[in-house]
Design goal:
Layout: H1 2-23, H2 41-50, E1 55-60, E2 65-72, E3 76-83, E4 94-100, E5 105-112, E6 120-129, E7 135-140, E8 153-158, E9 168-170, E10 173-181, E11 193-195, E12 198-201
Antiparallel strand pairs: 1-8, 2-7, 2-10, 3-6, 3-12, 4-5, 4-7, 8-11, 9-10
Length: 202
C-alpha cells in the first residue's frame, strides 16, 4: 500500500509540474512587422491619380524641392522611403525630409543617393505618424551641377497644365497637397502634381 501511495504521489507531482510548465511557457519576443515596398499605399494613390482622364505620369518641374503633404487615419510607422534620381545627378545627394507640420518638427532628415534607372529605397528608423497631424515628405536637390533642369523628377500631373485636385486617399493614407519650390521660398504649396516619393509603412 505504501508503494502504491508513493507512486500516486509521484504521478500527481509530475502532473502538477507539467501543467504549471505548460501554462507558464514564455511566448518569446514578437517578430517585427515586415517593411514591404510592394504595392504601398502611396503607389496605389499615385496609380489612381495617373488613371484619371487627362492626367499623366511624367518627368518635369525644375525646382529644387519636390514634396507632398499627407495625413494618416491610424497610427503607422514609416520604415522606408523610395525615390529615383535623374541620370545627370545620380551621384549627387538628395536631402529627404519628413516634417510634422502640426508640431513644426523635422522627424527625419537624411542625405542619400538614389538609382537613376528605378525607384530605390533608404531605410528609416521607424518614424511614427499619427492621426490628427499633417505631414510633409520632400526631397531637395541643391547641387544641380549648374543646370536647373537637373532638378526635375517623376510626378503625376494634368496634361494641359491644370491643377491636380486634392485630397486623394487609399486605406489610412491621404495626400492633401503638394510642394514644388526653390529652397529660398519654402512656403509655396502647389497643385501642379504629385511627386513620386514612395513611403513604406509598417
Amino acid at each position: 500500500m505504501k508503494t502504491q501511495f508513493k507512486f500516486r504521489l509521484i504521478i500527481l507531482a509530475f502532473a502538477t509540474i507539467s501543467a504549471f510548465s505548460i501554462g507558464c511557457t514564455p511566448t518569446g519576443p514578437s517578430l517585427p512587422l515586415p517593411c514591404s515596398t510592394v504595392n504601398t499605399l502611396f503607389q496605389q494613390i499615385y496609380t489612381n491619380v495617373v488613371a484619371i482622364p487627362g492626367d499623366t505620369n511624367t518627368v518635369t518641374m525644375d525646382t529644387e524641392v519636390h514634396g507632398y503633404d499627407f495625413t494618416v487615419s491610424a497610427n503607422k510607422r514609416i520604415c522606408k522611403i523610395g525615390y529615383q534620381s535623374q541620370p545627370a545627378v545620380a551621384s549627387q545627394l538628395y536631402k529627404i525630409e519628413i516634417i510634422d507640420n502640426t508640431t513644426s518638427t523635422t522627424l527625419f532628415s537624411q542625405n542619400a543617393t538614389f538609382s537613376a534607372t528605378t525607384t530605390s529605397y533608404i531605410s528609416v528608423p521607424n518614424i511614427a505618424v499619427v492621426p490628427g497631424h499633417n505631414y510633409t515628405i520632400q526631397r531637395t536637390l541643391t547641387n544641380w551641377l549648374g543646370n536647373i533642369g537637373n532638378t526635375v523628377g517623376r510626378l503625376v500631373r494634368e496634361v494641359n497644365g491644370g491643377s491636380i485636385p486634392f485630397p486623394h486617399t487609399v486605406g489610412v493614407m491621404t495626400i492633401t497637397g503638394a510642394r514644388f519650390h526653390q529652397t529660398s521660398n519654402p512656403s509655396v504649396v502647389s497643385t501642379f502634381g504629385i511627386p513620386y516619393i514612395d513611403i513604406a509603412f509598417q
